[in-house]
Design goal:
Elements lengths: L2 E2 L20 E6 L9 H10 L3 E8 L11 H5 L6 H23 L1 E9 L8 H8 L2 H15 L3 E5 L7 H15 L8 E8 L27 E4 L3 E2 L5 E2 L1 H10 L6 H4 L5 E6 L8 H12 L9
Parallel strand pairs: 1-4, 2-3, 2-5, 3-4, 5-6
Antiparallel strand pairs: 6-10, 7-10, 8-9
Helix pairs in contact: 3-7, 4-6, 5-6
Length: 298
């Protein structure tokens, strides 16, 4: 059962160790409803094949998406592209959409922080210093991480050209984790999506002014191949799951165009993580490569 949870929970401080054979626990921390599409295939694999648990902490209410709601006006019976109407109705609509998509990929619990989604910007400082209640957000993230003892946190990679809200959500996740004791820290990944046909390789060593985002190697350490084949005559792959998830975000008309691409989900290992966690991570990603679908005779 998918649960919409409030923040009335006790904080439990204990060592976060994944014992052999224990299903992984993952927390997604993102800014907007639909950002989770960036790691949809990995999440599906974790929940459906590894029997792990994935929760989602969503920072904003998604209200600024009204510009892209033209096609959804008939579906929802409202003039969502009118800014006043969209900002009033979209927070509820987009929560329903993300939970419908979450049912497909297996998200268990949702934590909505309801910070303002003001407008598109590349500037993360705007929301961090003027819009969001970052002290409150960090405290709620801290309580959640300590309570649930996650193994991994998935965020979007905070590249200079990405949305400022995406960058801000990842920065808050890194700030929260870095303030914990070393034995309490989940492993934090920044995630990006690429095509196999990409001729230029993204190099990311960190976001200027935010040393916690540093990635010394400048490249992703792990990846999940969405094009892994399975099913009858190997005619299926995990891009089907991504398409299903995107289709649930009907209030955002650009999703099918902007997000319906990408062959691999890339995971960047932030330098704040302990190097001693590498064997555990390698085991985790090796398990994601295995095809656990049973072969059937037709």
């Amino acid at each position: 059962m998918r649960l919409l949870l409030s923040y009335c929970f006790a904080v439990i401080i204990s060592i976060n160790i994944l014992t052999a054979g224990e299903p992984p626990k993952v927390l997604i921390i993102t800014a907007h409803p639909d950002d989770e599409t960036g790691f949809a295939a990995t999440v599906y694999k974790v929940t459906h094949e590894l029997k792990g648990k994935v929760d989602l902490a969503l920072v904003t209410n998604g209200e600024a998406g009204f510009k892209y709601s033209t096609l959804a006006e008939d579906i929802y019976g409202a003039e969502l592209t009118d800014e006043a109407v969209g900002r009033e109705l979209l927070p509820t609509i987009r929560k329903k959409e993300i939970m419908a998509g979450g049912k497909i990929i297996g998200i268990h619990n949702y934590y909505f922080f309801d910070q303002k989604d003001t407008h598109y910007t590349l500037d993360c400082d705007t929301v961090l210093h003027q819009v969001w209640n970052v002290t409150w957000v960090r405290e709620k993230l801290r309580e959640l991480i300590l309570r649930e003892q996650y193994d991994y946190i998935f965020c979007l990679l905070p590249t200079p050209e990405t949305h400022g809200h995406h960058k801000a959500a990842t920065i808050l996740a890194l700030e929260t984790v870095s303030a914990l004791l070393p034995e309490q820290r989940p492993i934090v990944f920044g995630c990006s999506v690429t095509e196999k046909t990409d001729t230029t390789k993204t190099k990311f060593t960190g976001l200027d002014g935010f040393p916690l985002t540093a990635v010394k190697s400048g490249k992703p350490s792990f990846m999940f191949d969405r094009t892994q084949k399975f099913g009858y005559k190997d005619n299926l792959n995990y891009k089907v799951i991504v398409n299903w998830l995107i289709a649930e975000h009907k209030s955002q008309g650009t999703m099918q165009l902007a997000m319906n691409r990408g062959d691999s989900e890339n995971f960047w290992f932030f330098d704040i993580n302990s190097p001693t966690s590498i064997p555990k991570i390698e085991q985790f990603f090796e398990s994601l490569k295995k095809n656990n679908f049973k072969k059937k005779e037709y």
